[in-house]
Amino acid sequence: MTFIPHSKPSLGPEELRAVIEVLQSGQITAGPMVAQFERGMAAYIGLQGAVAVSSGTVALELALRALGVGHGDNVILPSYVCSAPWLAVQRVGAQARLVDINSTTYNLDPQKVRKARTSRTRAVIVPHMFGLPADLTSLQALDMPLIEDCAQTLGAMEQGRAVGTVGTLTVCSFYATKLLCTGEGGMVLSNDEVLLERVRALREYDKAPSLNTSAGNCKLTDLQAAIGVAQLNQLGEFLDKRSALAALYRDLLPAEVFTAPVVPAGRTHVYYRFVVRLMKGLQSADELTDYLSRLAHRGVQCRRPVFRPLHRYLDLPDFPASDEADSSAISLPLHPSLTEEAVRQAAHILQEELH
Ligand SMILES: Cc1ncc(COP(=O)(O)O)c(C=O)c1O
Q: Could you tell me what percentage of the chain is helix, strand and coil, using 3-state DSSP and rounding each to the nearest 5?
């Protein structure tokens, strides 16, 4: 039986060479490679500056701190996302206001954001889910500071604008299985140099004449940044490969059984995940769990796209779109080193195990 992993970092000779060069240089903590990676990412996204940090979660926290979000404030975020954005809001002492998603795009529903807004709302965290940009145009019209969370989406477009260029601040994650990885790592990017300077002052202690209790040690290392630079050079190829495999899944899976990702007009999808909605045969979240186990047993590693929606952890009612996604959506194996043969096999087993 061939094992088809859900995700896998694409690492090769470029990354190996880059890491060896850093080791040989003797400069292994934050140094010239971090600066090069920051310049490269800012140029790639189309922003003026970037500050590399140790993870996406830390990037979110420092972005909130840079905006001055703290006690007495609230921050809007979706329920259908990993817990990192919620945790970042807790770290800065603010209150998270969860809103539901749009059930076809899995992204924040701008109408619900409008309703959730209060006089104490200081920011909206906008994760672009699974490779598809959120409805930035409608969110921007709300005239609130947006933190674009690009942990899952790089290189996609919304109404002619590159994802990451619309918010006041943008954050990235470079966790091992992301579109671009450094093992662990994150970044805060912006055109606002004042905000970026605040992030720099928080990622490293002894950077300012007075003590700041919110500062810490959140640096990325040159070893990690060297991997990031090598990955960035190949990101275009990685995204092309993902798109080709996504197109193959679309061809192979019957649409009346597996609803493929919907790409609204004016947006592009970069397929960090290929999330399908199961239209028939499963009635509950438990049945979905059983289906995932049967697939795993046959060597096809599929996942729930979100481990547990935040409102479930917090026991909050009225998140119908998140609930629906949680009981009927699954993420299929997809990464640049996956072969077409593996996609064909996965598509075949996905259909067989449904009956
Ligand atoms: C949307 C989103 N935001 C933030 C994060 C957190 O990133 P990290 O794992 O690098 O802390 C993730 C990570 O998976 C994510 O998917």
A: 40, 15, 45
Task: Look at ligand 1, atom 3, and give the residue with the nearest C-alpha.
Answer: 151
Q: If you measure from the C-alpha of residue 100 to the centroid of ligand 1, how many angstroms do you get, rounded to a whole number?
A: 19
346, 19 Cβ separation under 8 angstroms: no
| Cβ contacts of 355 within 8 Å, gap of 6 or more | 281
Q: What is the DSSP letter of 130?
A: G
Choose the residue to mutate in 7, 57, 178 for probing ligand 1, maximizing ligand atoms within 8 Å of C-beta. Answer: 57
Superfamily designation of domain 235-352: Aspartate Aminotransferase, domain 1 (3.90.1150.10)
Tell me the HSE value of 283 on the side-chain side, using a 13 A CA sphere: 0
Q: Over the stretch 269-280, which tens digit does the pLDDT of each residue have?
A: 999 999 999 987
Nearest-CA residue for atom 2 of ligand 1: 151
This prediction's pTM? 0.98
- How many angstroms does the Cα of residue 127 sit away from the middle of ligand 1? 9
Q: What is the separation of C-alpha 344 from the centre of its chain, rounded to a whole number of angstroms?
A: 26
Q: Where are the alpha helices (DSSP H) in the chain?
A: 13-25, 32-45, 56-66, 84-91, 110-116, 136-141, 193-203, 222-252, 285-297, 310-314, 320-328, 340-352
Give the bridge partners for 190, in sequence order: 49
Pocket residue to mutate for ligand 1, from 79, 86, 154, 175, most atoms within 8 A of Cβ: 175
State the CATH class of domain 13-231.
alpha beta
Residues 202-220 pLDDT 10s: 999 998 889 999 999 999 9
Q: What residue ranges do the domains of the chain occupy? A: 13-231, 235-352
Separation of first and last alpha carbons in the chain: 20
Relative to the CA of 128, which ligand 1 atom is closest?
1
Q: How many angstroms separate the alpha carbon of residue 2 from the centre of ligand 1?
A: 29
| Token duo for residue 132 | 């598809």
Q: Which of 159, 232, 223 is nearest to 10 (CA)?
A: 232
Ligand 1 binding pocket (C-beta < 6 A) is 55-57, 81-82, 84-85, 127, 149, 151-152, 173, 175, 186
